Request: fold
Amino acid sequence: MNRNLWIVALFALVAIGWWYSPVSPRVPAPAPYIAGQTPRCPMPPRVTAGEPPLQSSVPRGMPGFGLQAASLQPLAGFSVDARVLSREDYAIGRESALSPTDLALGWQRMTNDEVLSALSISQSGRWYRYRWTGNPPLPVDEIARSSANMHMIPFDDSTARSLRQVREGDHVRIEGWLVEATAPDGWRWRSSTSRDDTGDGSCELIYVCAVQRL
Reply:
């Protein structure tokens, strides 16, 4: 390959990377509903500002959400008032058809600048990681129960646009439903319903009704 072709290839890679980056104007479309179903996302009870995420019971008889990519069964209502510790966008993999964005969120003392400046935070492969040098800025179990990586499934175009505007460091309130996604071929993706768990399966999978930057 000659030098000009290398330059063109490099430019194309940079352009593709930019297009799928958080600063791109691209807004991933929400996963479409099954034909004949009316899109809906009833609001759950709202968390009090400054409190841990509010998880609420699913109303009796509440049906699931029939998307073309998967059926979503609500496990709990979910409302979180938090600081965005990191975000990562995904365009490859089956999960990205539902959830194009992960947000690592922190609440209560995991919103403090002094605490976060002592942590190195990263995301990749649908995981959220944190490290520190010397002593941790908070007890390790408090870091775990006051932060989490959350997979966002936008309900509609407006929610998708709002999610696209969220940046690291933002104060946000996110409301929706923790869900289990299932497909006819046996594929399954289930949300955690605990703030105390860690490791595989500990992330929240949220069907997002509303996002507000505070």
The first strand starts at residue 54 and ends at 56. The two ends are 51 Å apart (CA to CA).
